Structure formats: structure tokens, C-alpha cells
Amino acid sequence: QVQLVESGGGLVQPGDSLRVSCAASGFNLPYYTIAWFRQLPGKEREGVSCLSISDGATYYADSVKGRFTISRDNAKNTVYLQMNSLRPEDTAVYFCAAENLSLCGSTWMGERYEYKYWGQGTQVTVSS
Predict the structure, then answer these.
(1) Phi/psi of residue 83, nearest 5 degrees
(2) Are the CB atoms for 90 and 70 separated by under 8 Å?
(3) CA–CA separation, 20 vs 124, rounded Å?
(4) Which ranges of the chain would DSSP assign to H, the alpha helix?
(5) Residues 60 and 82: beta-carbon distance below 8 Å
(6) What value does the mean pLDDT take over residues 33-50?
(7) Beta partners for 47?
(8) DSSP secondary structure code for residue 64 in this structure
(9) Which terminus has fewer CB within 10 Å in the chain: N or C?
(10) What percent of the chain has pLDDT over 90?
(11) Per residue in 76-104, pLDDT tens?
């Protein structure tokens, strides 16, 4: 059974760092495009970052570029999103998603409806 489980969310202050994790089971991550989305209150789920299957290319939305880093630990079958210099506008539920298709490049990422597998989300709140 394919499963994605996020963890690591929490309440932090502006300027702090936080790392959220996405543990996969039931499939091998290296063969899947992995993406992070977030959903702000009252807003649609938006793409944040992705990691491609083929060449390890990464993509970041303009709003997080230079502050967030996506990475993967194949031995642990886990993907991470390191978030630095957090801002109040980063407050959201963060979801990881996976799909066995090429849905990520250095300048683009797939739409949320293209991903079949989703985690349950983890809340990140940035507030002083």
C-alpha cells in the first residue's frame, strides 16, 4: 500500500528554520517525482517545490526560492523540505505528493491534479 506521511511541522517565529519530512512506504522514492505543496487558509493548494526522477533537478516557487531546499534520502525513503528565514506568509498546511511520472524540471512543476499519491499534511505556523 502506497503511503506518504509528513511530519515536522510546528509553530515557529519569523526568521526561524524548520524541516518537514515526508516518509514514503509501499514504493521506492527514486522512481517517483516528489513535490511539496502548501495550502493557505481559504486558498487553493499551491506548488512549492519538486524533485525530478531523472536528473535530480529541483524547482522552487518564486515565493520560496533561496529560502527552501528539497532533498531526498533514498536509504530512508524520505523527502525533506528545509525551510529557512520563515515568514508569516509561509503559514500553511504542507503536503507532499508523489507520482511515477516526470513532473518536475528546473523551471516547472506539475499541477496538483497530476499527482496520485498524497500525504495527510503537516501544519506550519510562523508567528511572533
Answers:
(1) -120, 115
(2) no
(3) 9
(4) none
(5) no
(6) 94
(7) 37
(8) T
(9) N
(10) 84
(11) 999 999 999 999 999 999 999 999 998 99
CA angle 81, 120, 63 (to 5 degrees): 40
Using alpha carbons, select from 127, 49, 40 the residue that is nearest to residue 83: 49
Mean pLDDT in the chain?
94
**How far is Cα 37 from Cα 81, in angstroms, rounded to an integer?**
11
Place of cell 504542507: 94
Residue 28 has pLDDT above 90, yes or no: no
Determine contact, residues 22/47, Cβ cutoff 8 Å: no
C-alpha cell at 9: 511541522
Residue type at position 2: V
Strand partners, 101: none
C-alpha cell at position 64? 520560496
- CA atoms of 46 and 9, how far apart (whole Å): 17
Residues 25, 22: Cα–Cα separation, whole Å = 10
Cα–Cα distance, 109 to 75 (Å, whole number):
25
